[in-house]
Design goal:
This protein is an alpha/beta fold and 323 residues long. It folds into two domains: 225 residues, pyruvate-formate lyase- activating enzyme, CATH 3.80.30.20; 55 residues, OB fold (Dihydrolipoamide Acetyltransferase, E2P), CATH 2.40.50. It contains nine helices and 13 strands. The strands form four sheets. A five-stranded mixed beta barrel has the order 9-10-11-13-12. The longest helix is centred in the last third of the chain and has 24 residues. The chain is globular. Bound molecules: iron/sulfur cluster. The site of iron/sulfur cluster (SF4) has 10 residues, from helix 2.
Length: 323
């Protein structure tokens, strides 16, 4: 009627408002396709740390965090689609600051999402392990007792050359604080051997740090120059020396990983089953500590979490029986 009056008065009438009623509301909901029980959810991208060997700050740019509301909405959608475990992903994930939330605040909000059973996050920088994140490891029920916290080297000289912005002592004390909050936490790390300027005593300092921390899992690499990074301009450790150091370091890490796995034998763990195993009737899943666990369970479904007694330790997995 208002528009008619405008036309009768010789004015142009134009209504560009959308109808309040959403026509799509009448369409039936399409069921969302099911997802595997464990999913990654990107919460942060980029990095401001500029480690001397790394291309991420150049290729991915500055740190950017996604808004927490969107992450929570996506997490609920993932849960509706069958996801039980969310691994929050970011190149420097513990620097998360979306909407001024810390990563710990985001984890606590996810802890309240019904149907979500497990939360993990990766990858972190030691300098961004804030007090609230350490406390969350001790208090947040759904945050799993596993932390990937790369250190790269145990030598302060090499850490300085890498521009890691912390010392070996700082890292070791940090691990102590994290373990005080969550004594059974499994620590995972990254190591680079043969970084430019690494001498025998620097390598020995890395071996000492590994002995002190005792890793349950680790990734180790021989340094290789990334074009455009500051370290690429420096003189290399010979390939022969770097190879020998890598072998020695990996032998120690493997020994620690095996010992921690063997210590699980006889213990009870909760396993989130993900897929069928190689053998008929076998199912494979992950424990809270991210150990792969296989059991005989022909009736088990992916997505079930079941109590399992660990009965043996193999090269990269544990064997168990359902309780
Ligand atoms: S903190 Fe990680 S992502 Fe960032 S520059 Fe260092 S190694 Fe690269």
């Amino acid at each position: 009627p208002d528009m008619m009056k405008q036309v009768e008065a010789g004015e142009k009438a134009l209504d560009t408002d959308f109808p309040l009623e959403d026509k799509f509301e009448h369409l039936p909901d399409r069921p969302l396709p099911r997802r595997a029980p464990s999913a990654f959810l990107t919460v942060q991208e980029g990095c401001d740390k500029f480690c001397a060997f790394c291309v991420v700050p150049y290729t991915r740019g500055a740190e950017v965090s996604r808004p927490p509301e969107r992450i929570l909405r996506e997490a609920r959608e993932l849960v509706e689609r069958g996801v039980k475990e969310i691994n929050l992903l970011g190149q420097n994930v513990n620097a998360y600051n979306g909407g001024d939330w810390t990563l710990a605040q985001l984890i606590w909000a996810l802890n309240d999402v019904d149907g979500l059973e497990r939360i993990r996050f990766t990858t972190s920088h030691p300098n961004d392990m804030s007090d609230d994140l350490i406390a969350a490891h001790g208090e947040c029920e759904k945050l799993m007792p596993y932390l990937h916290l790369p250190v790269q080297s145990g030598s302060d000289k090499v850490l300085k050359g890498m521009n890691r912005q912390h010392t070996a002592e700082h890292y070791i004390r940090l691990i102590e604080r994290i373990r005080a909050a969550r004594p059974d936490i499994l620590i995972s790390g990254d190591f680079i051997v043969g970084f430019p300027g690494e001498e025998d005593e620097d390598f020995e300092a890395t071996m000492d740090l590994i002995r002190e921390v005792n890793y349950g899992q680790a990734y180790s690499f021989k340094y290789s120059a990334r074009p455009g990074t500051p370290a690429a301009e420096r003189s290399f450790v010979s390939a022969e020396v770097a190879n020998a150091r890598l072998q020695q370091l990996q032998a120690l890490l493997t020994k620690q990983q095996r010992a921690l796995q063997e210590a699980m034998v006889g213990q009870e763990v909760d396993v989130l089953f993900e897929k069928k195993g190689r053998l008929a009737g076998q199912m494979i899943g992950k424990s809270q500590h991210l150990h792969a666990v296989h059991v005989a369970g022909p009736d088990l479904q992916a997505g079930e979490i079941r109590r399992v007694r660990v009965v043996n330790s193999e090269t990269n997995s544990l064997g168990g029986e359902l309780l």
